[in-house]
């Protein structure tokens, strides 16, 4: 049972980054034309910028990532899924987008992303390294402006209480904040995902022992991440309880 729990935490670690980013990426595709990230208003952008600064981050790092590495990754995902432009308000076209998204092989898509030059560029980015080391992620997640933006993005993507994703998605900020508070940082968990996901998604299946023995898992712990602390985060323990039954 403990091994299963440890392995589950590894998967939750993947979710710390992949789930919020999946929402952000899809929100970008669904928003009306805008030059601002995630379709934010000028006021929201100012509030989020202030929040990042107050939490020891540098908004210019986020902006640089958004305009370069993240933009390239979004373009890659769009190319891989052949998703049509969803900025139109035409109902028929919107229904086509939903149908196309439903057909996506997300395992194959994740492998394509992790094996891409665009992913390598993201991981090598100085801005990512700076945000990982300097920005207080728990502080950002607790910020009212971010919380409001995140909830708006969930709603805009149809993730409400009737959605099977809602129970996990609504907890994402608290889980990410707990991860940071327990010593976790952004880049180490991305490196962990990069190391173990290909084996799991490439047909090898989920082998808890191989995940726990992976150098990337050891590196995640060595980076300062306290797994026992993470288990104690209420949202994490609650999620684990629902997973384990």
Q: In one word, what is the shape?
A: globular
Q: Report the average pLDDT across residues.
A: 76
Q: Report the count of strand segments.
A: 0
Helix content: over 70%
> Tell me about the biggest sheet?
none
Order of helices and strands: HHHHHHHHHHHHHHHH
Approximate strand percentage: under 5%
N→C terminal distance: 12 Å
Number of helices: 16
Rg calculated over all Cα atoms: 18 Å
How many domains would you count in the coordinates? 1
Uncertain residue ranges:
1-34, 83-91
Structural class: mainly alpha
Signal peptide: 1-25
Keywords: Signal
Can you characterise this structure?
The structure is a single chain. The protein is mainly alpha-helical and 245 residues long. It has one domain (2-244). Helix 3 (59-81) crosses helix 7. The protein has 16 helices and no strands. It is globular. Mean pLDDT is 76; it is low at 1-34 and 83-91.
What topology does this entry show?
Layout: H1 2-30, H2 42-54, H3 59-81, H4 91-102, H5 106-114, H6 117-123, H7 126-134, H8 137-141, H9 144-156, H10 166-169, H11 172-181, H12 186-204, H13 208-213, H14 215-222, H15 227-231, H16 234-244
Helix pairs in contact: 1-11, 1-12, 3-6, 3-7, 5-12, 12-14
């Amino acid at each position: 049972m403990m091994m299963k729990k440890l392995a589950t935490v590894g998967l939750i670690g993947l979710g710390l980054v992949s789930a919020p980013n999946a929402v952000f990426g899809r929100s970008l595709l669904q928003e009306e034309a805008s030059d601002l990230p995630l379709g934010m208003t000028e006021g929201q952008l100012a509030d989020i910028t202030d929040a990042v600064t107050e939490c020891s981050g540098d908004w210019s790092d986020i902006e640089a990532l958004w305009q370069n590495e993240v933009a390239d990754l979004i373009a890659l995902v769009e190319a891989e899924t052949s998703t049509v432009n969803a900025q139109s308000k035409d109902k028929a076209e919107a229904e086509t987008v939903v149908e196309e998204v439903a057909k996506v092989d997300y395992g194959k898509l994740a492998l394509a992303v992790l094996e891409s030059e665009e992913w390598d560029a993201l991981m090598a980015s100085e801005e990512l390294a700076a945000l990982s080391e300097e920005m207080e992620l728990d502080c950002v997640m607790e910020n009212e402006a971010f919380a409001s933006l995140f909830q708006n993005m969930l709603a805009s993507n149809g993730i409400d209480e009737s959605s099977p994703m809602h129970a996990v998605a609504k907890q994402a900020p608290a889980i990410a904040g707990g991860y940071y508070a327990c010593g976790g940082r952004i880049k180490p968990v991305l490196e962990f995902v990069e190391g173990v996901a290909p084996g799991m998604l490439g047909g090898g299946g989920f082998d808890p022992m191989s995940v726990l023995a992976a150098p990337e898992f050891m590196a995640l712990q060595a980076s300062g991440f306290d797994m026992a602390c993470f288990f104690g985060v209420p949202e994490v323990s609650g999620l684990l309880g629902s997973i384990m039954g």
